# Entry
Amino acid sequence: MFATYFAIMTYTKATAFGEEQQELAKMAKVLSHPARIAILQHLARTQRCISGDIAQEIPLSRTTVSQHLQELKSAGLIKGEIDGLTVCYCIDKEQFTKAAAMMATFLQQVASSYDCDCQPNPIPA
Amino acid sequence: MFATYFAIMTYTKATAFGEEQQELAKMAKVLSHPARIAILQHLARTQRCISGDIAQEIPLSRTTVSQHLQELKSAGLIKGEIDGLTVCYCIDKEQFTKAAAMMATFLQQVASSYDCDCQPNPIPA
DNA sequence: AAAGTATGTCGCAAACATACGTCATACTTA
DNA sequence: TAAGTATGACGTATGTTTGCGACATACTTT
# Structure
């Protein structure tokens, strides 16, 4: 107990990243591969929910595309329904919108930060 | 020459990812680690351009934080000015805003896509 | 000049991501 | 029921990222 406290206090700095920081990083990670961007764009553009034809649109093997789809799915950004032989994927609009809003808010906050002129630390607190 | 053509044509699908897809993925990758999110938030929040004090705010060693700073810098999202002993980092507002806008547009486009009900491929083109 | 401080760079180990061939599953159609 | 097709899961090779200690650099202060 004391030991635990001590261990924590020894670390002057933050002990872990915040919930939101981890959420944002996770969202960003999902988007951090061109194949997954391409898949999302394709799903957004197409009128119908294309299944494995997606692999036709992307310069990767079917296996690899399937993996990327799994990743997008387990992140909750898309959903897939089995319909007989084929699987119909589409954007999970609700979840995607939520995650996108969080990301957009973060970007907005950082972008609208005060424009620094890189002066040396003014008040060495 | 013919061989090259043949090699290209053999690939029915796209040969490479688009410029924009790669740009977006790159931006996302930079944001795909909680430490880098935390650093950006910290820089945005702080009135003055903190240098190595950043390491105090983050649950990682100074070395590792320095690396993350380098990554943000080489992605152009932040800039750092040496001022004697310390280095003053801050958001590169122009570049960050540009990248953020690109990302926000992409998210918006996907989020505002048509809401699919996952019917089986209607017209098997 | 010597000691001190803020930083960055190097090199390594461990963890993770990517790509893809092959195999397993489950449905369709003949 | 057998052949065919669309998929996902498994295994594995190869590459990339992360984290950090130890060292190098460059400036400041005494």
Residues 1-12, 120-125 of chain B have pLDDT under 50 and may be disordered. Chain B touches chain A through 68 residues (CB under 8 Å). Residues 33, 35, 60-64, 67-68, 82, 84-86 of chain B lie near DNA strand D (CB under 10 Å from a C1').
